[in-house]
């Protein structure tokens, strides 16, 4: 795990719990990560999306804390979490279907001025978006929509990008594009947290994999180990079970 200049982890999650009403979904999630790509994998209903929503401020936590570069960010409003350095690529993309690609990126262009990630840099990373810049969100393929969702997050020029189910419904060629983008981001000093049900896609994006079971981080493996061992896939991910 790569640490920041002060010797502390980039992201520290300690005993994070959250839920809906009287129902607890997250039950003491704890882990640390540096400037790296890390995956969180698990079956449906294990709390992965709830964790994302809690991390980025959409859902309040009931216990524990989250620190980014040593500063607590738990229970902040989503816009304050974003300003603190965490950008979010949500499951389902959540684009404005009536806006063009250009218009989506223009909303954040002023904030991105003179920084690493600008609309022009996003078009360099995803040339297909440059070809489709005048097309509305509703006219884009699923893969193009996902590229746009990632590009929009990049314009925040955050220290950590959180991606919830980024490979969902995508063709292998588009997953290849996302894998390349994640590797480039880490090489440039941006951490990426990939929350996935698709083990193969998760392992390609991040070799360090945390397994979530019933709202907790139950185990940690490398992606290669999880892919090679069907017993672990059956135990933790339900692969091969009825």
Structure description:
There is one protein chain. The protein is built from 10 helices and 10 strands. The protein is of the alpha/beta class and about 240 residues long. It has one domain: P-loop containing nucleotide triphosphate hydrolases (Rossmann fold, 3-Layer(aba) Sandwich), CATH 3.40.50. The strands form 2 sheets. Strands 6-7-8-3-9-10 form a 6-stranded mixed sheet, with helices on both faces. It has a 4-stranded antiparallel sheet with strand order 2-1-4-5, covered by helices on one side. A hairpin with a 2-residue loop joins strand 1 and strand 2.
Mean pLDDT across every amino acid position? 92
Poorly predicted segments = none
Q: Mind describing the biggest β-sheet?
A: 6 strands, mixed
CATH homologous superfamily caption:
P-loop containing nucleotide triphosphate hydrolases
Share of β-strand residues: 25-35%
Could you tell me the CATH topology label: Rossmann fold
Q: What gap, in angstroms, lies between the N and C termini?
A: 36 Å
Helical/strand content category:
alpha/beta
Order of strands, widest sheet: 6-7-8-3-9-10
How many E-type strands?
A: 10
Question: What is the C-level CATH assignment?
Answer: Alpha Beta
Radius of gyration: 17 Å
Q: Name the shape in a single word.
A: globular
Pfam families: ABC_tran
Domain ABC transporter: 11-239
GO molecular function, one term: ATP binding
Family: Belongs to the ABC transporter superfamily.
